[in-house]
Design brief:
The complex is a heterotrimer of chains A (290), B (289) and C (359). With 290 residues, chain A is mainly alpha-helical. Chain A has a domain of 177 residues: MetI-like fold (Orthogonal Bundle), CATH 1.10.3720.10. Helices cover 73% and strands 2% of the residues of chain A. In chain C, helix 3 packs across helix 4 and helix 3 packs parallel to helix 5. The longest helix of chain C has 18 residues. Chain C is globular, with a radius of gyration of 24 Å. Classes of the chains: A mainly alpha (290), B mainly alpha (289), C alpha+beta (359). The interface between A and B is large, with 91 and 97 residues.
Chain lengths: 290, 289, 359
């Protein structure tokens, strides 16, 4: 057991001050706005839970939330299995392994708006390779006009951008499996599927939980990439929560509704992450004491 | 009892196994090739466009630049309003990385070594900040940093990015520190080391790879973020990413310059990856495997 | 079960080995008799695990062939060799129950469920795992996990051989003894060919009917525990086996006498003139302290290890151990040592030299 020593707070203090400055103060501002209304620039008055009430009845918010959930679900369902598949096929050592690692990490270090720009160009029918190719196949494709096309483009972009993160995490998990497990499986005449199901998947579980949490949170907060590609359109087809929020807060300066929106938004992420984490740790416990 | 190895089987089995093994490695090669192709094609296209003139881009369609030109790059590298964007971005990213790792180190040590009042709650609360959508914080940050006179400075962006990088750094470093046996600390106390000396001389070298990984992730998330950095800057500290979006809307889409600017933003990331390539696999385990 | 034949077998981890030193396993010819329990004994890094992995098919040897009952299996993969192997660290399928773990190798081979259940039950009873059969494997202690690994090795009745790679390293000393006894009982009951790798001589000598001693990639002796003790083929075997190990003293051998610093001693046999480095080896158990006859020694200290005492002495600047039976006399005047001539071995360049019977 770790020794109890409250002087450890002194070591945590710098983090506490910094995060308090950059999280607590702004959050209090948001909470403050969320219960007030203003007509002019600097006159505020109490509005109670009015904004929250409006928000819960706002079709615009529910639509954005629905799109957001759908988007996160789709990208998780594609990226997690694909990432695992890639990790299983990555070379384990030597030059090719390094090359794969470097190339795969590349999209992760491209600024979000450049990711948007790359796909904005790549998907255009007039100058983009993808747009041209799809059009050449006789498919009427235009991500700025057709909602389905816009969704497909954004989902493919997200898969392009983030699958490597899951693959790299899963790969790190795979590499930690001692060789003896594979040897034992070979001696037991386990099929390739059984090796995956009973050795690799259980050993990757820890990193996969992290990967899924990270991908859920980040996909739920996505802003820049779809904003650059579609600007939230056509219509509102790709207006996700963050895009809607920024439009509301910085575009229309609707401080009260935006603040209430912000709080709900944050709470949803916290709640889902907490629920996922709790379920996963409970599953652990059911499987016996560690 | 051993008819399993009857002569026919003994010759047939190895051939079949060898074939299965080579089929599997061929399968892997095909999967990886397709995936890497998928990753690289869009980037290739960006590079391709950056080497064309705007006329060539809009005038016709070609898979590679027919008349390669570096004019787009020249435009960027000779115009301060362009290249200062890179300088600004690098300044706040490096600032952020240094601040995040510096404050996270002692905190991670505290979490990995001691129990103290409210430690678990504090740790979880820190992590919740990683779950905060930047969009939520854009407006309050804008007001906060304007109020304290830090708007449009590098330090403002660096501090804002601490919101998500500090919790991440604490979390990663805690994982690595937990792997260092406590006996090492205790031996150092017995040998009469003071805390700062012990921490810098003995402990830090032991978790050097963890510091590297934490710094890598801080760099990565600060470099790619746009929403906050754009909101908190206007002229003096404007990041390259923001410069790009503005130029697109103002100058009527100069695709070549835009593509060249994009290629240039990929380079710092690619360099960082190249330097840490041997640690990537270990690093992505975040000290937690 | 099968007879395993190694023919001109050698292995190097390098693709193009130059010279003998680069071979992790030096050339070797050996027959492992069907149904026998062998121990592969040697210090860490002597090539014993390499040899084991070649037999199980996890490593393909650089040269030579392996035959199971006369069939060449050198290129056959592990699965086709139908062997079982237990590793140093417990390898269990974490998410499966103990029962499913034990059934795993059988189910993969498509045995009917009734037969699987019966075998699992039988193995669990032998290893004392019946209670934990329905539990998940991940929560169990290292002991129990290693028992599961052993059980997975045992569960198939028709295996050609069961290979153990230092399987008791992670087990508590008390449990070690118990598991070793169980393994011996299992061997008596089913008569599988068993090969047991270990660096612990007690484990090797109590488990196996024949012990293969390896040193620096070479098999130096194969024999019964008694052979190894009484007639070590190499000085390494002499001091690796036995506690304390054999005394090895440089000597000049002439006919049936050996000249040591301080005098000559009689040998049980006569020897032709030897070349190279000559040494004599004498087990501490066959050395006697005496007041009147033999070579003069200086006694450094005496250790009491329970059943007997060990005298650490010094003979002409060389350390010499003498085992004193319980109740054996030990007085201040006993400063001489004699050796039982029948048990003095002669070694040239480390290898035992057989002499001719004394006339």
């Amino acid at each position: 057991m770790k020794p109890i020593d409250n002087r450890a707070w002194l070591l945590v203090l710098p983090v506490l001050v910094l995060v308090a400055f950059s999280a607590v103060v702004p959050l209090m501002t948001v909470v403050n706005y969320s219960v007030q209304d203003s007509f002019g620039s600097n006159e505020f008055f109490w509005n109670g839970i009015g904004w929250f009430d409006d928000l819960l009845h706002s079709e615009r918010m529910w639509d954005a939330l629905g799109r957001q959930i759908l988007f996160s679900a789709i990208v998780l369902l594609i990226e997690v299995p694909l990432g695992i598949l890639i990790a299983l096929h990555m070379p384990r050592k030597g030059f090719w392994s390094s090359l794969c690692l470097v190339l795969m990490a590349l999209p992760l270090l491209i600024p979000f708006n450049v990711v948007g720009t790359i796909w904005q160009i790549f998907g255009r029918v007039d100058i983009g390779l993808l747009g041209r190719a799809v059009a050449a196949l006789g498919i009427d494709y235009n991500y700025t006009r057709d909602a389905i096309d816009a969704w497909v483009t954004i989902v493919v972009m997200d898969v392009w951008h983030w699958t490597s993160l899951i693959a790299l995490l899963a790969y790190a998990g795979l590499r930690s499996i001692p060789q003896a497990y594979y040897q034992a499986a070979e001696i037991d005449q386990a099929s390739r599927w059984a090796v995956f199901r009973f050795i690799e998947l259980p050993k990757m579980r820890g990193v996969l939980v992290i990967a899924i949490l990270l991908r859920f949170m980040d996909s739920f907060m996505i802003y820049t990439e779809p904003f650059v590609v579609t600007g939230g359109g056509p219509g509102n087809a790709t207006t996700f929560l963050s895009i809607d929020l920024v439009k509301m807060a910085l575009g229309q300066f609707d401080l009260g509704p935006a603040a209430a929106f912000s709080i709900m938004y944050f709470l949803v992420i916290l709640l889902v992450s907490w629920a996922f984490y709790t379920v996963m740790t409970n599953l652990d416990r059911e499987e016996g004491p560690r | 009892m051993t008819d399993i190895l009857a002569s026919s089987a003994a010759t047939a089995v190895p051939a079949r196994a060898a074939r299965a093994r080579s089929e599997r490695s061929w399968g892997s090669a095909v999967v990886m090739t397709l995936y890497l192709l998928f990753l690289l094609l869009p980037i290739y296209w960006l590079v391709n466009m950056s080497l064309k003139t705007n006329n060539e881009i809009l005038g016709g369609f070609s898979l590679w630049p027919v008349d390669p030109t570096l004019a787009n790059y020249a435009t960027i590298l000779t115009d301060p309003s362009w290249y200062m964007g890179y300088v600004n971005s690098l300044i706040y990213v490096v600032l952020n990385t240094v601040i995040s790792v510096a404050v996270a180190l002692p905190a991670a040590y505290a979490f990995s070594r001691y129990s103290f009042l409210g430690d678990k709650h504090l740790f979880f609360w820190l992590l919740t900040n990683r779950m905060a959508p930047p969009a939520v914080f854009a407006l309050p940050f804008f007001q906060l940093y304007s109020a304290v006179g830090l708007f449009d400075t590098h330090i403002a962006v660096a501090l804002a990015h601490c919101l998500f990088n500090v919790p991440l750094a604490v979390w990663i470093l805690e994982g690595f520190m937990r792997g260092v046996p406590r006996e090492i600390d205790e031996t150092a106390w017995i040998d009469g080391y003071s805390f700062p000396r012990f921490f810098l001389r003995i402990f830090l070298p032991l978790i050097a790879s963890g510091v590297g990984v934490a710094a890598f992730f801080c760099f990565m998330f600060s470099w790619v973020e746009l929403l906050l950095s754009r909101t908190l800057t206007s002229v003096n500290a404007k990041p390259i990413a923001s410069t790009m979006t503005r130029t697109v809307s103002a100058s009527g889409l100069d695709w070549g310059v835009l593509a060249a600017a994009g290629v240039l933003t990929i380079i710092p990331g690619a360099l960082v990856i190249w330097f840490v390539r041997n640690y990537i696999a270990k690093g992505f385990a975040l000290g937690r495997v | 079960m099968a007879r395993i034949t190694l023919r001109n077998l050698a292995h190097s981890y390098l693709a193009q080995p130059r010279g003998e030193e680069e071979f992790a396993l030096k050339e070797l010819d050996h027959d492992w008799a069907d149904g026998e329990a062998y121990a592969l004994l040697g210090a860490s890094g002597c090539g014993k695990t390499t040899l084991l992995n070649i037999i199980s098919g996890l490593i393909r040897p650089s040269q030579g062939r392996i035959l199971f009952d006369g069939h060449d299996v050198t290129d056959a993969p592990t699965a086709a060799r139908n062997i079982a192997q237990v590793f140093q660290f417990p390898v269990v399928y974490d998410t499966l129950t103990v029962r499913d773990n034990l059934a795993f190798p059988l189910r993969n081979r498509g045995l009917p469920p009734a037969q699987v259940a019966a075998r699992v039950q039988a193995v669990a009873r032998m290893l004392g795992l019946e209670e934990s059969l329905p539990r998940r494997a991940r929560g169990l202690t290292a002991d129990a996990k290693q028992k599961i690994s052993l059980g997975r090795g045992m569960v198939r009745q028709d295996v050609n051989a069961i290979l153990f790679d230092e399987p008791l390293t992670v087990i508590d000393p008390q449990m070690k003894w118990e598991l070793r006894t169980q393994l011996k009982a299992l061997h008596r009951e089913f008569g599988h060919t068993m090969i047991y790798v270990t660096h612990d001589q007690t484990e090797a000598l109590t488990f196996a009917s024949r012990v293969v001693v390896m040193h620096e990639g070479r098999v130096v002796q194969i024999g019964t525990p008694q052979d190894l003790f009484e007639r070590p083929a190499h000085t390494f075997v002499g001091y690796f086996i036995g506690s304390p190990g054999m005394n090895v003293l440089p000597a000049r051998v002439e006919g049936d006498r050996a000249h040591l610093p301080g005098g000559a001693i009689p040998l049980g046999r006569g020897y032709a003139p030897l070349s190279g480095r000559t040494e004599i080896g004498i087990r501490p158990e066959f050395a006697r302290l005496s007041a009147t006859e033999g070579l003069p020694v200086a006694i450094r200290r005496v250790e009491d290890v329970g059943r007997h005492r060990i005298v650490r002495a010094d003979l002409g600047g060389r350390p010499l151990d003498i085992v004193l039976p319980e109740g054996g006399p030990l007085g201040p005047d006993m400063t001489r040592v004699t050796f039982d001539p029948a048990h003095v071995g002669v070694f040239a360049d480390g290898w035992r030299v057989e002499g001719e019977a004394a006339r």
